[in-house]
Amino acid sequence: RVLAPEESPELLEDSLNKLSVELRRLREHHRQHRDSTAGSAYDTACSLEESYIHTDKFRLRFLRTELMNPILAAERLVTFLDRAVEFYGEKVLHRPVRLEDLGKDGLELLRSGDYQPLPFRDRTGRRIIAFVNNFGLCFPIHV
Question: Mapping DSSP to helix (H, G, I), strand (E, B) and coil, where does residue 115 land?
Fold first, then answer.
């Protein structure tokens, strides 16, 4: 059974509008609670004229993940940006995360084979990474 609603141009437009409203509400909420750093990356991104986070394509990823629920999508988007900036720096507000952003340790982890980017993407164009591990066992698992 598919949980996602049937997408139509009207649903997408309505959901994107509701997401924008919710993002404004969240931004105002975070401004009123200055002691919290939550949402600061989104706040910074809003001041950038050219940022991919303003595109419908980027925002639809979060709406689709949350089955077109704009409240949950807004929270997920803001949290994602906070974590992305925490891990990779503010450059990820200008462009999506790239493999070279992982650094030496991250690339070594990918090369170890435990994490493998698959040669295809999901239906929204996101890269799929598979995690294959022996779960801490001292011997390799053979299939």
Answer: strand
- For 81, other C-beta atoms within 10 Å of its C-beta total 21
CA angle, 61 as apex, 70 and 63 as ends, to 5°? 15
Residue with tokens 């949402």: 39
pLDDT at 37: 63
User: Which residues in the chain come in under a pLDDT of 70?
Assistant: 34-38, 134-143
What is d(CA 133, CA 138) in angstroms, rounded to the nearest whole number?
A: 11
pLDDT at residue 104, as a whole number: 86
pTM to 2 decimal places: 0.75
C-alpha 79/C-alpha 62 separation (Å) is 11
129 contacts: CB under 8 Å, gap ≥ 6: 115, 116, 117, 118
Neighbour count for residue 23 (Cβ, 10 Å):
22
